[in-house]
Design goal:
InterPro entries: PPR_rpt (IPR002885), Smr_dom (IPR002625), Smr_dom_sf (IPR036063), TPR-like_helical_dom_sf (IPR011990). It comes from Alexandrium andersonii. Keywords: Repeat. By secondary structure, the chain is α+β, with helices and mostly antiparallel strands. The chain folds into 2 domains: about 80 residues; about 100 residues, Ribosomal Protein S8, Chain: A, domain 1 (2-Layer Sandwich). Helices cover about 55% and strands about 10% of the residues. A 5-stranded mixed β-sheet has the order 1-2-3-5-4. α6 links the parallel β2 and β3. α6 packs across α9. It starts with a helix and ends in a 7-residue tail after the last helix.
């Protein structure tokens, strides 16, 4: 199925159906989603990145299916720098929106693996500082939907915040699956801001 979808996509391009061509010759959202789904199913993340790049260049607007597939593609990508680049592009195009509410103070990590969640937290801290927020909250989840019923992301998120970044955090009062991060401590420490930037793969070139 994967090889067939990619073969058909390549054949369409050879026949003149091209992302940069006139609108009537471009692949539509159904075509892109089908090929992207095949790439994630076959764990062909490099090919998936090419297709995703073609879709963005063509101007085809992503839908909720694209967003779900895009998250799966991020999960299959082994390189942190590529994950960060894709993540930022997905934020810019609206394919992914981890912030809850217009205030952008609550970061929801549900549906992410550890690699993507780490990128989301680091980039979220940088974004919150730029927006001059006093604090931000992170929801790693309580493990209700995990196979073991135990929190999957909470340990890794706490290790990142407390052990690596040396931040003082607390659990949210209303939601035991959330963590509150006061951002004043980040702004007061230049070394910590530099550390966040250095640890965030978004600061590195692909």
């Amino acid at each position: 199925e994967t090889e067939k979808a990619l073969s058909n996509y390549t054949r369409l391009l050879r026949q003149g159906l091209h992302p940069s061509g006139p609108s009537h010759t471009r692949p539509d959202i159904i075509t892109y989603n089908s090929v992207l789904h095949a790439c994630t199913k076959g764990k062909l993340w490099r090919q998936g990145l090419v297709v995703l790049r073609d879709m963005r260049r063509s101007g085809v607007r992503p839908d909720h299916v694209t967003s779900s597939i895009g998250m799966l593609l991020l999960h299959e990508t082994p390189r942190d720098d590529i994950v960060a680049k894709l993540y930022q592009e997905a934020l810019d195009t609206g394919e992914i929106n981890p912030w809850v509410g217009k205030s952008k103070q609550l970061l929801d990590l549900h549906g992410m693996n550890e690699q993507v969640a780490r990128t989301s937290v680091l980039m979220g801290i940088e974004d919150a500082i730029r927006r001059q927020r006093r604090r931000m909250s992170i929801i790693p989840g309580k493990g209700l939907h995990s196979l073991s019923g135990q929190p999957v992301l909470m340990p890794s998120v706490l290790a990142l915040l407390q052990d690596e970044l040396k931040l003082h955090v607390r659990h949210g009062k209303d939601n035991t699956g959330s963590v509150v991060v006061p951002l004043g401590q980040v702004r007061r420490r230049k070394d910590l801001k530099d550390l966040c930037s250095a640890k965030s793969p978004a600061s590195k070139e692909m």
